[in-house]
Specification:
Structural class: mainly alpha
Strand content: under 5%
Largest sheet: none
Radius of gyration: 20 Å
Order of helices and strands: HHHHHHHHHHHH
Distance between the termini: 59 Å
Number of helices: 12
Length: 223
C-alpha cells in the first residue's frame, strides 16, 4: 500500500515538473487576463492542447497499474497546487477513470471545492464537466445531495451545485431525478429549452409533476 502511495506521489511530482517544462512566457496567449480576481492563481500558459496531450501520456504510462483510487490520489496532489494547468492535469487524468467512479467521489469533490483547491471558474467548471457530471449520471441518487451544496458558505461549492447538474440534465431520467431536488429549477430549465429537448426526454422529465402542471408543460414542449 505504501509503495503504491509513493508511486502516485512520484507521478504527481513528475507531472508538476513536466508542466513546468511546457511553460511559456505570457505573450499573445496570457491566461491571467481571464482571471483578474484570483490573485493567488498561477499560470504556465502552456495551452489546453498540450495539457491534454500530457494527461493522455500520464494515463497511458500508469493505466495498467492504477485504479480510480490511485487517480483520485493523483488529482488530490495536483489540485492543491496553485497553478491552473497543474489542477487541470489532475482532473484530466481522473476523468479517464470515469467508468470506475463510485459514490464516495462526490464527497471528495466537495472537499476540494470547499478547501478552495478549485477556487476559480475554469477549474470548477472542469471538475463539474469531467468529474461531478459523469458521476451524477452514473449514480442518479447522488443528485439529491446537490440541494445542500446550493446553500454552502463556499461560493465554488454553490457554483458546482448548478454546473454539476448540466450533464445529468441532458438525460430524461436524470432530469426527472433532478426535479426531486428542485422542481422549480427543473420547470425553468424545461421552459427555457422548449424546442431543444427531444420529445421523449421531455416526457420523462415531467413525469413527477402534478397532472395540471404536467399538461401545461407537455403542451408547451410539444406544441
Amino acid at each position: 500500500m505504501f509503495r503504491a502511495q509513493e508511486a502516485v506521489a512520484a507521478a504527481a511530482a513528475e507531472a508538476k515538473r513536466a508542466i513546468k517544462r511546457l511553460s511559456r512566457p505570457a505573450g499573445d496567449f496570457d491566461a491571467s487576463r481571464y482571471f483578474r480576481g484570483e490573485h493567488n492563481l498561477g499560470f504556465h500558459n502552456a495551452g489546453t492542447g498540450r495539457m491534454r496531450e500530457l494527461a493522455r501520456s500520464i494515463h497511458a504510462a500508469h493505466r495498467d497499474r492504477w485504479d480510480v483510487n490511485d487517480a483520485i490520489a493523483f488529482a488530490d496532489a495536483l489540485l492543491a497546487d496553485r497553478f491552473l494547468e497543474t489542477k487541470s492535469i489532475g482532473l484530466e487524468v481522473l476523468a479517464r477513470y470515469r467508468k470506475e467512479f463510485s459514490r464516495p467521489l462526490l464527497a471528495r469533490c466537495k472537499r476540494w471545492l470547499a478547501n478552495n483547491h478549485s477556487a476559480n471558474w475554469a477549474t470548477t467548471n472542469a471538475m463539474c464537466g469531467m468529474i461531478i457530471g459523469p458521476l451524477l449520471v452514473k449514480h442518479p441518487a447522488l443528485q439529491s445531495q446537490m440541494r445542500g451544496w446550493s446553500a454552502h458558505r463556499n461560493m465554488w461549492v454553490r457554483r458546482a451545485s448548478i454546473v454539476g447538474l448540466l450533464a445529468p440534465m441532458r438525460h430524461g431520467w436524470a432530469l426527472r431525478e433532478a426535479g426531486k431536488v428542485d422542481a422549480r429549477r427543473l420547470e425553468r430549465y424545461l421552459r427555457a429549452n422548449v424546442g431543444r429537448i427531444p420529445r421523449t426526454t421531455f416526457r420523462y422529465a415531467i413525469e413527477r409533476f402534478e397532472p395540471v402542471k404536467r399538461g401545461d408543460l407537455l403542451a408547451a414542449g410539444l406544441s
